[in-house]
Amino acid sequence: LLLTMIGRLRSAQGRRWAWLLVAVVVDLLHSVLVEKRREAAVARHHWQRSRNACEPLYGRIGIFIYVDQLERYEGTIACWKCYADSHGYEQFVVKPFAEDQRCQRRCGHIVSVFFRRHCVAAVYLDRVDWLLFVDADSFPVNFHRCVEEFVDPDYQIIHYERFFSGEVAAGSYLVRNTDQSRDYLLDWAEQSFVLNQIHIHNMDNGVLQLHVLRAVGVAHDRLAVCWDKFRNASSLVGYFAFVGCTKKSLREHRPTAATTAGHSRRSVKVLAPLGGWLRDVWLTGGRWTDRDFVLHDLKRQNAFLKRFVSEPSCPSSVDTSGWLWSLGPTKLGYKVSVETASRLFSKAERRSARYHPDVFFPDSSSSSTVVSHYG
């Protein structure tokens, strides 16, 4: 069309203007192409740097997601796949009651999905050296963080304490491929019957608090005290009194020859609040920093996460500094400074301490990244 217009121009001045227009258009197209190539090069650089950042110091790493509604969490699952591929990790996405025959044979009798998932994870454990179990409503917000950062080869199972509730979190953990770890998960999964005896149990979370105490060899009399609180809890106030009991028992536990009989002193490790790999996204209103790794409780699978499903490749999504998503009609999630996030955490801590005084002890620091060792 442009050449046709030039041909119709009879005057020398018209031809000069036409060629000038062509030169401007070519220059603009060249600038656009150069910028596109630059962006592609930057994306490849971020992807390559991310891929090379995590050395396989502890063997094969697997990421395990047990999800009942694949279409509901397709965005977070695709995000995890992108992350796993960029670091050479394996990813296992398993749907309840649709597992393979090995899982069906071992876990088919467990009806509760909350307990069955730990049994299935135990079956998958022999496929890798370390398995990261995560909820489907979580996703890695910083691709440069590595699972290996949280692996401790001196332990078999690594948990973390949830920031606002004081519970040892049931929704995510790191587990090593050993017989001891497998037995730990299977024993936990087999305790779904306890729910029939408890009024306020928070599914597998409540049972886990006592399971950890047993694993590290806490004395039976302390276990009995906490069990009574669990069994007699008739409200959330009573439940968090039980959680406070288990938390205090772990903090005060000092292994002895008597209390560790039949237990490994270094079987279970519990990371302090905010010292683990995952935290709830709502604690900071959806904001995050370079220090974060995995954000949890993102139920809204919006366009931000669904782009991981629609994009044919992952490298362009590795640089997360410009990520932005909607958490509601008036809330947006985006990257902030560590100082800003710290202020938001302090506010959340004060609020949680008012609601759950039994799990916020005077000498505890919920904003600490200090690792707590139990057992």
From TrEMBL:
The keyword Signal applies. Gene3D superfamilies: Spore Coat Polysaccharide Biosynthesis Protein SpsA, Chain A. Transmembrane segments: none annotated. It comes from Trichinella britovi (Parasitic roundworm). Residues 1-34 form the signal peptide. InterPro entries: DUF273 (IPR004988), Nucleotide-diphossugar_trans (IPR029044). This is Nucleotide-diphospho-sugar transferase domain-containing protein. It holds the Pfam family DUF273. PANTHER family: DUF268 DOMAIN-CONTAINING PROTEIN-RELATED (PTHR31562:SF4), PROTEIN CBG18972 (PTHR31562).
